[in-house]
Every structure is written in structure tokens, then in C-alpha cells.
Amino acid sequence: MSDDNVPLCVDMDGTLVRSDLSIESALALVRRNPLYLFALPWWLLRGLAYCKREIARRIVPEVAQLPFDPRMLGWLREQFTRTRVLCTASDRRVAEAVAARVGLFDAVLASDGKVNLSGRRKAAALVARFGERGFDYAGNSRADLAVWAKARRAIVVNARPDVLRSARKRTKIDRVFAPATGVWGELLRALRPHQWTKNLLVFVAPLAAHRIDADLARHALIAFVAFCLCASAAYLLNDLLDLDADRAHPRKHLRPFADGRLSLLSGLFGVPVLLLAAFACAMLLPMPFTWALLAYAVTTLVYSLWLKRLPVIDVLVLAGLYTLRIVAGGAAVAVEISIWLVAFAMSLFLGLALLKREIEFSRLASGPLDRLRGRGYRLRDRSVVRAAGIVAGAAAVAVLALYIDSTKSAELYAQPQRLWWLVPLLAAWLVRLWMLAGRGRMHDDPLVFALTDWLSLLALATGAGLVLLAL
pTM (2 decimals)? Predict the structure, then answer.
């Protein structure tokens, strides 16, 4: 039988689309209303097909932005002489939306609320329609082995090596589309190790109190590792819940989950593993640190699910999370945190959080939208955000000046007057950040930018030198 007469049946999740749309839909539903977390187990008790239908009744992913595999789309266009069938375990509503977007399929077979069309059920449906060995099938997962066993030929897409080997034992392989990237490299990228430098804030409290010895350094290092693990769990969760917003972003659309280079299941598995590892580290430190880490984890979760969409509240929470790192560092080494340090940190990080929103506004101004995607801000709020950010930065400079003139600094420094040079240094650095943001020359995270900008690093080194001279 010639290829022109053999129907081509194509799986959707992981094959045509580099993602799992059932999981995406569930995550989008939870992001819309976290209370659906309590409904999902009840729906699952009535079967996967029923659960998928209930989710699809409420939400369908934005198919225009899905990470379609360009190799599969190109190859499907070449098969125009064949009957092409989209055959998926996702719900029919989702499958039909994808088929309409692609415009290359003659028919759609999908889960219908009663039957979950996966594995043997999918194989039986295709055999009933086309006969055994009467169709070619493109798939990617171990569940597709049952379908390949009934197919004339297999097209293996983005599959693990063990799945490919098993497919060869069941039928003839017509074509292989190998995964474009390695899983471990993408997982490391999703953990965002470049963001771990923010967790160096746990060292601020012992340094500010002038208490450094081997034991304190060891405790601070454990605290740093715990926050890195906890923060990476938060990054994974945030990326899983922000798929649509990331895909619409000029840079974030390349993140591993948004681009489909990393499976959503690996992220869902990674979040609890990282959290368990973080709290295992916390158990080695005083209990107040564990409570601080727990507060950070819970606040980050609530932020990802809800608070990030509330104007003003979102930047206050971000500033609080940065300041909490400093407080947690003090708890890890049993150092009392000065109210001056807390006030300075909150003011400084609030200004930087507002600067981050200003950077997002600068991209919005050149596009068709009038609101920040995934946030509660509109374009007309930009002047207020800019003014508030500048005021918050000025407040940080004022707190620093008041601290230098206080009795507290006189207790810690032999020559506190030398610290006065920190005031113009900080003011100049903040003004430069705002100028660069206005010129569109800054990364969307001011802290990450500062840690890679040579002038910012020079300012930091100069500030550290001034502190040493004042001792």
C-alpha cells in the first residue's frame, strides 16, 4: 500500500505540541482560581477523561502561542496527499482548538469525558477506524507503544532513547525526530542559578553586625543553600503558572517550560523535591530560620497564585521577600537584626521592584496592549509607578544618612564619618539605574543587571572599601 493511501495519525501532547495541554489547562485553571485545587481530586476520582472534560469546560489554553514543533508542522504540510488525523488523550475541546489553529487535519479523535483516549484505548480506536496495520502513527511517549504495535509504521518524535528502542521492537520506524536539547541542561536552566546571587543577602546580617567566624560562616552558607533550593522551587512553580504570559514576553518565551523544551511533569515533580531539600538544610540551623524559610515559601506560593496580579501589593511583597532573606540570615547565625537595616532594605528593594515594573512598562509602550500581562497595571499607571520608585529610592538614601548620624553607627564604627561617602554613592547608583531603564538598556531584573554591570560592581566594591575604612 502506498503512503498516499495510508492515514497519518498524529499525537498532540509532546509530539505536535512540545507540551502537555491537559496539565497546562489544569495549571491555568488553578492560576485563575486556586480553590480549584480542591475540585481536581474530586474530578480525578471519576476518571481522567471526566477530569479533562471538567477542566476543558472552564478553560482552554491559548493555542496561538503554543510551542508547536516546527519540524512536525513542516513534515505534516508535506503529507498533504494523505488523510491526517489528530489523535490525542487531551479533551476534544482542546484538540479541536489546536486542529483549527494548525489547519492541517481532516479529523480529530480525542477524549470525550467518558473514555480517556490513551494507550490501548487509542490503539483500539484507530484499529476500529482504519484496521490493524492500516495507519501510520506519530507519537513520543511510552503510552504510544501500544499504538505503534498496531500501526504500519512509526514516526517517533522527541522520545527518550528507551522509548525509541521499544518502538523498534513493535513496528517499522519510518522517521525519527530527535529531541533538540538535553533534559538536564534545560532543568538547570529552569532552576535559574544566575538568580542565586540574590540569596547572598543572608550574609548581610552577620556582616553588618561585624560577627564573622568559622561557625557563623558555616551556618550562613547552609542558609544560602537552603534559600537557593527554595527559590528554585519558586521559580519552577512560577514558570508553570505563567506559561501564557511568558510566551507573550519578548525574552521569557524562551524559558524551558514556555518553549516546551522541558516537560511540565518534571517541574511538578521538582518543586516538592527542592522544597524538601531546602527544609532538610534548614533543620541544621536554629528554629527561627526554619520559620523564616517557611514564611518565604508560603509567601512566594501566594504571590505566584494571586498577589502578583495586585498592583502595589505585588511590589511590596517582592521587597518583603528580599528583606526576609536578610532577616533569615540573622536568624541562621543568631544575630539581632537592626531596625535600621530592615528599614533600609525595605525602602531600597521597594524602589528596585518598582523599577522592574518601569522596565516592563517600557516594553508595553511599544506594543498593542495597554496593560502588563499577568499583572494588574495599566499603561496609565506608569507615571505613578515611576514616581513611587524614585521616592522609595530616596527614602533608602535618607535612612542610610540617618543611620550614619545615629548612635548605633558610633557603636559599631571607629570613624563613622567616613560612611558619609556611601550616601552620594548610593544616590548616584540609583539615578543611573533609572536612567538606563529609561533608555531601554536594562535587563528586566535590576538586581541581576547590577550583578553583571561593571560600574555597579565597582560601586559595590567602593562601598565595601568605605565600610572597612570606617571600622
Answer: 0.87
